[in-house]
Amino acid sequence: MPRSKNKVASHRRRKRTLAAAKGYFGARSKVHSIAKNAVEKGLLHSYRDRKLKKRVYRSLWIARINAACRMNETSYSKLMGKLHEKNVNINRKTLADLAYNNMDAFNEIVKFAMS
Questions:
Q1: Alpha-carbon gap, residue 115 to 111, rounded angstroms
Q2: Is the per-residue pLDDT at 5 higher than 90?
Q3: Does position 51 have pLDDT exceeding 90, yes or no?
Q4: What's the rounded Cα separation, in Å, for the pair 14 and 107?
Q5: What are phi and psi of 33, to 5 degrees?
Q6: Distance from the Cα of residue 30 to its chain's centroid
């Protein structure tokens, strides 16, 4: 009995790998054995960086809040401490958006917290 190579599944698997490697440079997008490693490494980076993105955005929000606080003669840590004392549950993402897009509303929050 002849050996079965299962060409359809093998071809589909290689085609999927090369499609995922589309846009890579040189052999990384053309040669299956090299593209396979590049795609696997890319997937590892994407998994790790989904976690990292959350940290990066949080630090961006804190920087924006701190900059807006400095315009109101206070600091980020003092504002967050006062908001915590007054049980104001507003997250950093919302505060940063207010500081960036609606400075008047942010100033009101700062006045309320510091009073």
A1: 6
A2: no
A3: yes
A4: 57
A5: -65, -30
A6: 30
User: Whole-angstrom Cα distance, residue 58 to residue 95?
Assistant: 11
Half-sphere exposure in the Cβ direction for 74 (13 Å, CA): 21
pLDDT (tens digit per residue) in 77-99: 999 999 999 999 999 999 999 99
Q: Report in angstroms the alpha-carbon separations of 19 from 41, 50, 98.
A: 15, 22, 42
Q: Tokens standing for 114?
A: 């510091």
- At position 40, the amino acid (one-letter code) is E
Q: CATH number of the domain at 7-114, please?
A: 1.10.1900.20
Question: What are the extents of the domains in the chain?
Answer: 7-114
Cα-based distances in Å from 114 to 8, 43, 51, 64, 80:
69, 47, 34, 19, 10
Is the pTM higher than 0.90? The answer reads: no
Q: Give helix then strand counts, H and E, for the chain.
A: 5, 0
Average pLDDT, the chain: 94
